[in-house]
Amino acid sequence: MNAKHSTLIGKLSLLVVAMFAFGYALVPLYDVFCDITGINGKTASEPVSAEAAIIDTSREITIEFIARPNQQMPWIFKPEVRRMRVHPGEIHIMNYLAENPTGRAIVGQAVPSVSPGQAALFFHKIECFCFTQQYLAGGNDMLMPLQFYVDPALPAQFSTITLSYTLYDVTSQWQDSGQDIATEFGE
User: Fold this and answer.
1) CA distance 72 to 57
2) Alpha carbon distance 84, 60 (integer Å)
3) Which residues cross the membrane (predicted)?
4) Residue 91 three-state SS
């Protein structure tokens, strides 16, 4: 093999390593980008405190609620109401209904998304079932509360915010860990 081929192979190998490193770093970089810009509708994964915000009664925002189980999740999952009009700064409680029609216990995890994505920075969850995994025995149902408010600093261009939850079956994570699901969730 001549020197030109060795140099080319070295450069191509280096390129492959650089591409792999870039791909590996892309996920955390994307998360940082979404946090800074509010794009992708990611909401906080931890509760915020209920600040004594001044309620903006001159303005109403429509909040739309969407809920859907992932294809592998057999639960029935829906909001109690599909749409609500709120004043920025007001604290509201809204419930989602989950029903497990199977004969086995299932652990679910809800993942939220807000649209438009920039509005996610102004949609604050005080309490949310999405902060923790939810256990539901077979044949049972439960109400899962969401307590929230819309920050009065929400730009005037936003008149509607859509909050969407996708519910995933995470039971296998518990089973794979060797823990007894019913004992862990206090049943």
Assistant:
1) 43
2) 10
3) 12-30
4) coil
* The Cα angle at residue 82 between residues 78 and 87, in degrees rounded to 5: 130
Q: For the beta carbon of residue 32, count every other beta carbon within 10 angstroms.
A: 10
Alpha carbon of residue 144 to chain centroid? 15
Contacts of 102 (CB under 8 A, 6+ apart): 74, 138, 139
Q: How many CB atoms lie within 10 A of CB 89?
A: 19
Task: Write out the two tokens for 92.
Answer: 């509201």
Q: Is the entire prediction scored with pTM above 0.85? A: no
Q: In angstroms, what CA-CA distances link 91 with 61, 105, 145, 152?
A: 13, 33, 13, 11
What string of pLDDT tens digits covers the 187 residues of the chain?
677 778 888 888 887 877 777 776 666 656 555 555 555 545 555 555 566 568 899 999 999 999 999 999 999 999 999 999 999 999 999 999 999 999 999 999 999 999 998 999 999 999 999 999 999 999 999 999 999 999 999 999 999 999 999 999 999 886 655 556 655 555 5
Pairing of β 92-99 and β 106-115:
unpaired
